[in-house]
Design goal:
alpha+beta; Adenine-n6-DNA-methyltransferase TaqI, Chain A, domain 2; five-stranded mixed β-sheet; four-stranded mixed β-sheet
Amino acid sequence: MYYRPEIANLEKKIRVVSTKKLRDYVVRISSGATPSVKEEDKYYSNKEKGIPFLRVQNLQPNGKLALEDVKFINEYTHENYLKRSQVSEGDLLIKITGVGRMAITSIAPDGFVGNTNQHMVIIKTKNKKTSEYLANYLNLDIVEKLASRRSTGGTRPALDYPALKSIPIIEGIDFTVIQEAEKLKELKEQEAKTLLATIDDYLIKELSLKLPDSNNTLESRMFTTQFSDITGSRFDPFYQKTKNDKIESRIYKNIALRAIAKIEKGNSITKEKIIPGSYPVIAGGQTSPYSHDEYNFEGNCITVSASGAYAGYVWYHTTPIFASDCSVIRSINEKNVLTVYIYDLLRLKQSEIYLMQQGAGQPHVYPNDLEKIKIPIVPLEKQQEIVNHVRVIRHKAIQLQHEANEILAQAKRQIEKEILGETL
């Protein structure tokens, strides 16, 4: 990419109007490491007691951190082994390794305390306002091309510190149009979330589902149990109190998942068996463009990610290959129970799946636990009616999300045209 004429010309144009380089804004720069998952009890923790441990998937090109999927390390790891990579509010976080878009930049929000691995850098600037300006700038598509131009490596490109700090910076850009676009984007996204939230209400009504008691008084939050009931099981009070909270139908028969579906674990995929291909690999809720012809693949299935923060999250895919940290679910007989119907019910039962996790630093949910989930069974025609209704809602929500992304993309293109002196 470095010698591609269009990228080289782009760099020349930006250098003409740039006055500084990224290094001029760096007060301190550092990166972290990835503690061994084989020693998870030593390094990792849970959400309640742990420190957020950021990874590349937590960075977003809108400058905000995505904190829904975060691992956690314990305080000792944060203060000792990873002391140099501590993250605090206003810090600039930049992706420096990996495939796909390079130099995705996010800012640590107010009051944030966390840490990160070696795949991104933490840059401390003069103040949060400076970080916000740089994040808006680095997340422009034309600037990302300059970052990618500086990366080295084949299968896993990387930006070293000198290359990153050499990126030319244009001062004085008015990013108001992007800020306004962000507000509109958030409104669209909220509209999509509100629409998706109606799915649960619809399923509850159509299937006459009984929900767990929502009483949150002090008395309701105090309970006792026998020691024999928790021997060999989880000790945490939240699990013990809510383990019997099931969402089940009052009028339809509730059947265990093992009776209507096949639940299998994915394949163990080693580096030696991976070659580039066009089939996505479902691994821990993520997809990658690798495949191997000895692995079977099939569509019309559900995957539940087994480990870490993805545990219990249900996905619906077509023609994937499954890694070992996924449980694969599909109907035994589509003429009796639709796989996609099971999927809609599992989405509704997400909290129930989450409660099945076992382990502290990296919780897991296993097939022999998933098979106990009960699904209300209705006639096939009713299943199809429900599936069609939910599909329409999800389609509308996806359209809103696409519109939201396009609003921001247009704002960025407008800024880029102004930078390059093109006619709007």
